[in-house]
Amino acid sequence: MSKLRLLIAAVLLSGCALWVASQGFPAAPADLSTTPSGSMWRALVHLSTNAFVPWREDPLLVLLARLLSAAPEQVNLAEPTSYFWVSGAVYLASMLACGLTLGLTPLLSLLVAVASALIILLLLGAEQGATAALAWWPALSACVLASVAPRATTHAAQQGPLMVLALFFAYRLGVAGGALSIPLASLALCMPAMLGYKLRTIGIWSLVVLGPPLVMTAAIPPVPFPDYPPQARVIADDGLPGIVRPLTGPDLPIAVIDRTAIRDALVPTSLALLLLTLVAGWGLRRSQRYLWLVALSGALAVFLDSAPPESVALMMPMESIRRLLPGLYLYFLPPLVIAISSILLVVLLALRNQWLPIAGLVLATTAVWHMSSIDRPPRHGILERPRIDVVSGIFALPLCRDSAAASQHCRNILASPSLSVLGNYGAAILRSHYAQVERVSRGPGRVVAASTNQGSIALAHDKDPATRWSAKRGEEHSWLLIRKPQAQPAIGIALETGQYASDFPGGLEVYVGDSALQCEPSEVQRQRWNLIFKSDDWQGPVKLSPEGYPFYLGQPDVEIPFTQPIKGSCFLVRQTKRRAIFDWSVAEVRFLFERKQRSPTLDDGHRQSIALRPNPLKEG
Amino acid sequence: MFAETAPELSPVETKAGPISPRLSVAALLFSSGLAWMLLALIAAPLHLWDSEGALLISGPLSGSVIGLLACIGGYVRRNKAEALLCVEPFVLGLLLLLCSDWLNRSYNFYQGPLIRGELLVLFLAALVMLRQTRIRTLRVLPIVASLLCVYVFFYTAKGNWIVSDDHPSFVYRLMLLWRHFPDVPIYYPLWNAGIEYREYFGTGVLGPFLLGAPLFALLSYTDAYTVLVALILFVVVPTSSYIAARVCTLSTLSAAIASTLALGSSLLWYRWGLKYGTMGFVTAVAFAPMVIACAARLYAARNEVPRLLLWIFGVASSFTIFWPAAAFIILPALVYVAMNCAALLRMRRFIILTLVMLAIHLPWMVLFWNVSSVGSIITNQWEQHREHNPLLNSPRGKVTQAPVSVQRIVRPLYEASHSTNPLILMLLVPGLLLISRRGAPVYAATTLWLLFLGTVGNTIKPHLELDRMLLVLAFLGCVPVAVAVEAVVVRRRIVGAIAMAAVTLVPFATAAVVGNRSIEQYTFENGDRRRMRDFLRELETPGRIVFSGFVLHELNESHLASLPIETGKALVASTPFHNKWRYDEVIPAAFLRRGSEGIEAFLDLLNASVVIAHEPNWVSYFRGAASYRERLQIGKFVIFDRSQASPSYVVEGSADIVEILENGVRLIPRSDSVILKFLYHPQLVASPCKVEAQSYEEVLDLVRLEHCTPGQEVFLKLPGPWRRLFQ
Q1: CB contact under 8 A, B118 and A314
Q2: Is there a single domain that holds both residue B457 and residue B578?
Q3: Cβ of B508 under 8 Å from any chain A Cβ?
Q4: Which of B117, B148, B152 is nearest residue A316 as measured by Cβ atoms?
């Protein structure tokens, strides 16, 4: 009977693995990393969360990857996938060893290793830093467990070699995992306690296991952060005053991780894991209680991190630990914590010989991954729809994959905290005249008609910032028909909020009319308009820093950039998203004109190479 | 170690003392009332969670009345066999404080509101730890805390040296001491045409100097100084509190808690230590806990005290009084020691210690009294000159004193309480009662004395900046508070976990302050300052370099003091230090009144060959003047070459300047009377010449050498310390 269950589990797992493989496994994201000169450290940006983390390759894994791929050249950029697969192979081997140390049968150990590897793959994607850190973690745990586990020889004479081995794995974990290595090493140190054993020489073991990760974390250099001007933002406004800062470790001058984009997606995943863990706790043996509690705590922590409002979530354990431990502030932890909790759950189920639930867990993870992947609207702009996206967590898509065409400068801009801005506005923003022009002149526009409050449209061009036109209760689909009196091509339009700074629109679309259009209210027909700007969630106008990194200015500055100068004279502006309790007010309408060209930050070749967004005008 | 006369006690062993180990209704009521009064005094008005939350305490008066009523209730219900105080309500008061809008106010040590998350995590960890009876693990906390702070400090430094505010002044003082000790005071001709270097008396630089001497021998002075700052703030401070707790015969756990708390007693501690760079004050206060603890033991001593205790007392009190104002801090402790002098003077070791201390400290104290106008500083009567000369750095007039009122007395207490670690605020009272059982009323007396100085004293003598004493009080309070924390941690799991969470948060909160993530920002050397230093170092110029206008913090938020040490050039500025509190033009008014001709005359009298301007009016003046050529701009500082007819350090007569040293000027007069472009000081000697003053515009007194032997080298300098001592 047990063999049958094992067979069913193996079949299920193989099915999951094949299905994931059939979806097409993407290339690893090292293409998006930027290397500061003279440093082995690189900054890696994560597509889903915009997390911007320092990362370096484990030389041992690189060596193994070279041996396996028989490639003489460097692995880091040429063959990032082989590095990832080697990390996976090391993980499988070390998890197998860990299972054997725990007293599992070889077959069951293999099942645990494969199942947990699949879960990691689904949750973390091809993120090399986290997977390489996780690769060494089971091996380290196995060493610590071997000193206390019942099947291991715990003779004092064998503690020494075990410690040496643990020191080696702790060092590898420190090298590959960076700041993640401290919590992982701590977890490895706690493994005996989780399984009801007691480490006799806890002091020495603490030094052996935690020492190398601590030293390695201390050696992490400051992230090569672009120089943004004050008040710049690169992610959506979280609605909270000020920015969160860590108590220790590297700090970033502006908020980088886009939590709002991913928080909602984590609620069902964490809830499902929470329920599964609760069910798995049924009939638990006393010795396995702490292992179950840790797995449960992980799921609960992720749930508390994602379910409550942001102001409360920031005080929850996950965010607090992120601020407490050096280096963790740079990471978005929930996918990693879910992965670890799932691994612990798999181990727990394996210890109880419950093979089918293991397969079920992997199946459930695959299903959640699949559900989160389908029907997700692709990000407009340069970013293709990520194959492994939100719930799957950390995964950066290679944008400068064509390394022959894309220069280091392109790589630097894409592999920067500005990736989120590029995701919203597209690479076209890098070519936008508005964003590049140092001095912008302004000319008045004339509001011809409006969807509501027709009587007050004159207030939007009376040159008095204290008077305004406003949409009726800021309602969605309000529109303004605006005429440009000047013949000069406009590079943008400003819908100034004047004294009503909080009344900016939630989302916007801007259209330009055909040249034949007379700009009459009767002509507001969608078919005759060309979309030239679209923002589903208005975050402010996008500007380029002196080095060419795009960023948002404040939301009340409603200045809409055009990707190229527009000659047309009739414009239609529509609000596409309403903001609760706030109006949409326009105190003055002005057109923006180019006054002086600033020296370009990206040369033309680079711009061509990242021309990833079609011009909406041409599309129209 | 110190238990020869008093056995080590743990708070759980307290029997029917002032703190009740059992939670009786009377004790709860009385203690809650007291805690409520404390909350009302330091935090009212108090709202739950944030300023929009429910009002908990409307004002100090109403809150105090409620607290007083509770106290009276508890007192009425008291059982004479039981103590009237227990620690738990104070910890719950701490919890209330952490869950109130108080945590969100500016200058809070625990910077809310998000810090509540960290507290929650640490509370859960503490709960697990207390459940697992792993409480002894806490003993490693001060080491972890210290290492974390050191790491964060050097991580923030990024290889640069700390220059915030007064730090360069300290480097200047330390380097001169390193090169010329013990031949101080000296005449330092590289600043302002010659100043008397005697600041090591008042600024307490002797303490850091003695601690840092090995570092100065091994490292470059900037590296050595940065290491010294870290050593004092993150090693000496916790070690001192640890030793103090052990001297008080507290357990190693209490000592570890005290040591950890010492690292995070207050946010303002780091304002003085890191931002202002008052290392003399910080060093003196760092050693004060040991003095208080030793005094407590000496006060109770009846027989011969341990030799180690006397050693600690001698060393700690020496380092403390190297900053003379620290005498205020340890005064009650010394009074208590004196009260037991009958018993102490029967001890041979104590007599030897007293004699050694007198031999070491009396000479410099007398010299300090002689060369510094100590009396005038205390009475706020400053020396008035005929006409103000900025180069002499003599502040004019008194610090204005507002009328004394209750509001003005309480205000510093209210302000200081915001930046103080709330654990210390809430547990100081029970801690004092606990520690007093060990025969140490010294702590209570010192607390009351510092409270008096910080409030009433500060109001009466505002120029003495006695509000700092509240900072010292928070720091010295770490030892008694540690006793209270241990008492509650070993007895109550939940309440103990709250206190433990607050303690374990200290390293992280301190790391945030040290990492420049608080409202108190300090600076390390930046590119502009480095460029300025390198430029001046490589500059070849025959005369002095004058900073026009008034430079205070304009260069890298720091003073200019150490620039001559770093560059070897003679500089002139309105002030190299932070001893002026308003704009003070470097060129005296008497010269300025003469317009352009007066300005040039003054610069000629100083032998200025390079001028550095940063104020727009001075920049435009020099740009418009024919004798100036713009050379370079570094940040807001514009550097001009100044052409002189005959660049020389001699005004009248004839002399060859052989060498301008750090402690004087070597020259060979070629005439029997020479007027030099060096500032006159009444104590100057230049044997065999006679040194007199040559006044210009009745404000600038230059050195005039009379009756010189032409051709014979003379050394213009200040007389040696021994000669000045007996003058």
Answers
A1: no
A2: no
A3: yes
A4: B117
User: Does B479 map to a domain?
Assistant: yes
Work out how many domains chain B is built from and give that number.
3
Residue A325's closest chain B neighbor by CA?
B508
Rounded Cα gap, residues B439 and B305, in angstroms? 15
Is residue B415 domain-shared with residue B295, that is, in the same domain? Answer: yes
Question: Are B110 and B159 part of one and the same domain?
Answer: yes
Sheet strands side by side (includes A446-450): A446-450, A479-483, A570-577, A507-513, A529-535
Kindly report the average pLDDT of chain B as a whole number: 89
Cβ of A218 and B151 within 8 Å? yes
Q: Which of B642, B670, B687 is the last residue of a domain?
A: B642
Torsional sign, CA B407, B413, B417, B423: negative
Q: Residue window 194-233, chain A: list those with CB within 8 Å of chain B.
A: 218, 222
Give the model's pLDDT for residue B202.
81
pLDDT given for residue B563 in this prediction: 96
| A197 DSSP assignment | -
The rounded distance, in Å, linking the Cα atoms of B508 and B396 is 44
Instruction: Please state the ipTM of this predicted complex.
Output: 0.87
Residue B592: predicted pLDDT: 92
Residues of A in Cβ contact (< 8 Å) with B121: 317, 320-321, 324
Give strand pairing partners of A441. A593
Closest approach of A253 to chain B, Cα-based (Å):
11
**B118 in reach of chain A (CB within 8 A):** yes
pLDDT of residue A381: 30
DSSP annotation of A470: E
Q: Do B672 and B635 have their domain in common?
A: no
Residues with Cβ within 8 Å of B120's Cβ and at least 6 positions away in sequence, in order, are A315, A317, A320, B501
Chosen from B508, B516, B519 to mutate, greatest number of chain A CBs within 10 A:
B508
pTM of the complete model beyond 0.95: no
Q: Which residue range is the domain that position B413 belongs to? A: 11-19+87-163+198-375+408-514
Please count the CA atoms within 13 angstroms of the CA of A579 that sit on its side-chain side.
20
Judge whether B356 lies within some domain.
yes
* B324 plus B449 within the same structural domain: yes
Whether B271 and B247 share a structural domain: yes
Q: Which residues of A touch B517 (CB under 8 A)?
A: 245-247, 251
The model's pLDDT over A287-344, given as tens digits with 9 standing for 90+, comes to 888 999 999 999 999 999 999 999 999 999 999 999 999 899 998 898 889 999 999 9
- Bridging pattern class, strands B55-57 and A507-513: unpaired
Tell me what pLDDT residue A321 has. 95
To test the contact with chain B by mutation, choose from A204, A207, A240, A248 the residue with the greatest count of B C-beta atoms within 10 A, namely: A248
Judged by average pLDDT, the poorest of A201-210, A454-463, B368-377, B554-563 is B368-377
Q: How many CB pairs under 8 A join A and B?
A: 49
- Per residue in B568-577, pLDDT tens? 999 999 988 8
- Give yes or no for B668 touching A (CB within 8 A): no
Chain A positions in Cβ-Cβ contact with residue B511 (cut-off 8 Å): 247-248
**CA geometry: angle B101, B106, B112, nearest 5 deg:** 50
- Tell which wins on pLDDT, B123 or A528: B123
With CB atoms and an 8 Å threshold, state whether A248 touches B508. Answer: yes
Distance, in Å, from the CA atom of B380 to the CA atom of B477, rounded to the nearest integer, reads: 31
DSSP label at residue B138: G
**B-chain residue closest to A310, CA distance:** B114
* Residue at which a domain ends, from B475, B493, B514: B514
* A95-114 residues touching B, CB cutoff 8 A: none
Are residues B122 and B245 both part of a single domain? yes
- B594 part of a folded domain: yes
The answer, for B151 touching chain A at a CB cutoff of 8 Å, is: yes
B126 domain residue, yes or no:
yes
Please give the Cα distance from B571 to B107 (Å, whole number).
37
Q: B670 and B547: one domain?
A: no
Residue B453: pLDDT band (50, 70, 90) is very high
CATH number belonging to the domain at A426-619, selected among 3.90.1100.10, 2.60.120.260, 2.70.210.12, 2.60.40.10: 2.60.120.260
* Å between A409 CA and nearest CA of chain B: 25
Which residue stretches of chain A have pLDDT < 70? 1-2, 19-40, 69-81, 126, 149-157, 368-411, 427-428, 431, 433, 436-439, 474, 515-517, 525-527, 596-620
Name the residue ranges covered by the structural domains of chain A.
Answer: 2-228+255-371, 426-619
The answer, yes or no, to whether residue B564 has pLDDT greater than 50, is: yes
